[in-house]
């Protein structure tokens, strides 16, 4: 079966973009090796927009030694929601530029895609070969007191998004839209900012960044389910950020100053305390360790999920990391998605 990377009718992003120039260094990304960790870490360079800059994806080995960097074409702001397709292609989103980035396993960037003119935060690869995009914004509130600004939806003066779930074929045909509940987060406009699928793909676990709710949506029946947990409004100890699933089905959630481990029914299992505040991106799919990034300090750590110890760390850059993903190709003979 044709892989996602080679599908002939993917909707290319035709938006004119400024191409690489003298201000953009040469990319040094290496062919993907098992265990490599990729971090979306835009090089911020605007005096008037605190989230704008040169798109950048950093590549580390499993012990967080740097291997290379990709200077991304066609983005304007943060590189969000890094995730791997079953064919090994790295996908990411720029919710400001309304574009989807793809990087093939050889380390080269493929042409960007655009499934709609709206802010997507992540794509999920469904077993029926459709793509489920999560919408990161809902409502009209710009993110005060930040200086960055999101574009209103086409035909709207102020509305930034609907916070919905959008399912497409590989040809870009819209299959269905789900309307999950969202919280809004501190800015009031956060939609489905971070999410992970249940192993059987019937439920989506998700948050509105900085909000107190850990939510879930029944994809099989198109209905909202009860929150896995809900904190008190304004309680900084219950601010939810990125989340991931381990191979045994444990849900791990960034909570700013810690990582919480829960069952898929919301039962608390364990807390991993981390220094300071700002831990907001995570990938724990390897099962033995979680890779966690701190928005404020700009640090990425490798967290041992058995001992709770930090066993490796690297300084990246402050206030620019918006996605992290580890390359974990299926071993020979293991079941793979029909998308391969």
Task: Give a verbal description of the structure.
By secondary structure, this protein is mostly beta strands. It has a single domain, classed as TolB, C-terminal domain (Neuraminidase, 6 Propeller). 0% of the residues lie in helices and 39% in strands. It has no helices and 28 strands. It has strands at 37-41, 43-44, 53-54, 56-60, 66-71, 80-84, 90-94, 99-103, 109-113, 120-125, 131-135, 138-139, 161-162, 165-168, 174-178, 194-197, 203-207, 213-218, 223-230, 243-245, 251-254, 258-262, 268-273, 279-283, 289-294, 299-304, 310-315, 321-326. Strands 5-4-1-28 form a four-stranded antiparallel β-sheet, with no helix packed on it. It has a four-stranded antiparallel β-sheet with strand order 6-7-8-9, with no helix packed on it. Strands 10-11-14-15 form a four-stranded antiparallel β-sheet, with no helix packed on it. The N and C termini lie close together (6 Å). Residues 332-340 have low confidence and may be disordered.
């Amino acid at each position: 079966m044709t892989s996602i990377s080679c599908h002939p009718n993917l909707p290319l992003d035709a938006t004119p973009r400024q191409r690489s120039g003298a201000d953009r260094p040469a990319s040094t990304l290496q062919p993907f090796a098992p265990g490599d960790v990729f971090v979306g870490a835009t090089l911020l360079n605007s005096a008037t927009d605190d989230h704008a800059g040169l798109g950048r994806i950093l590549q580390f080995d499993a012990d967080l030694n740097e291997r290379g960097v990709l200077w991304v074409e066609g983005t304007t702001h943060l590189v969000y929601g890094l995730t791997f397709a079953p064919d090994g292609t790295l996908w990411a989103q720029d919710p400001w530029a309304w574009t989807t980035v793809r990087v093939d396993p050889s380390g080269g960037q493929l042409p960007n895609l655009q499934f709609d003119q709206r802010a997507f935060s992540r794509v999920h690869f469904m077993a029926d070969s459709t793509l489920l995009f999560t919408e990161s914004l809902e409502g009209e509130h710009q993110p005060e007191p930040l200086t960055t600004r999101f574009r209103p939806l086409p035909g709207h003066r102020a509305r930034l998004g609907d916070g919905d779930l959008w399912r497409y074929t590989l040809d870009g045909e819209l299959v269905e839209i789900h309307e999950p509940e969202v919280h809004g987060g501190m800015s009031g406009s956060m939609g489905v900012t971070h999410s992970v699928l249940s192993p059987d793909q019937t439920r989506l676990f998700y948050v509105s960044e900085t909000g107190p709710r850990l939510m879930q949506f029944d994809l099989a029946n198109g209905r909202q389910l009860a929150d896995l947990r809900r904190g008190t409004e304004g309680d900084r100890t219950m601010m939810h950020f990125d989340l991931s699933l381990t191979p045994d089905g444990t849900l791990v959630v960034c909570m700013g100053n810690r990582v919480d481990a829960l069952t898929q029914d919301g039962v608390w299992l364990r807390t991993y305390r981390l220094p300071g505040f700002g831990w907001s991106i995570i990938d724990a799919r390897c099962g033995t360790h979680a890779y966690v990034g701190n928005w404020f300090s700009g640090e990425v750590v490798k967290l041992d999920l058995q001992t709770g110890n930090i066993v490796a760390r690297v300084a990246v850059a402050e206030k620019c990391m918006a996605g992290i993903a580890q390359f974990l190709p299926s071993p020979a003979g293991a079941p793979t998605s029909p998308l391969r």
